[in-house]
Write a structure and sequence with these properties.
- Residues 10-25 have low confidence and may be disordered.
- The chain has one helix at residues 6-24, and strands at 33-37, 41-43, 48-54, 60-68, 73-81, 84-91, 98-107.
- Strands 1, 2, 4 and 7 form a four-stranded antiparallel beta sheet that branches.
- The longest helix has 19 residues, at 6-24.
- It is an alpha+beta fold.
Amino acid sequence: MKLWSPVRRALFTACAASLAVVVSGTTAFAAPYHQINGPEEYASAGQEKTVTAQCPGNEVPTGGGGYSTTVYFTVSRSFAIGSTWYWSGRNTHATEPAKVSAFVICTLP
């Protein structure tokens, strides 16, 4: 299957959006969103660790997650409560610490 070039894909998207406006008579724009990264923290070998990232002001999370500097960090939970995203897991490496951090995708309600 041949993939479309980025230019062809952009033109198709612009044409489809224009057609949608003509057909519906109104324009709907998606709310702007952005990613907030939480602070980096260390999980010692064998340690369970929860890290967080928080949306600013009255923004709400639409998704999130986290990252680790090692493949030995086993994720157990990833969820939002209020404006905060929580990402938890355990560093299963026998001796090395892992650097971990959460991120959250925020938007206005």
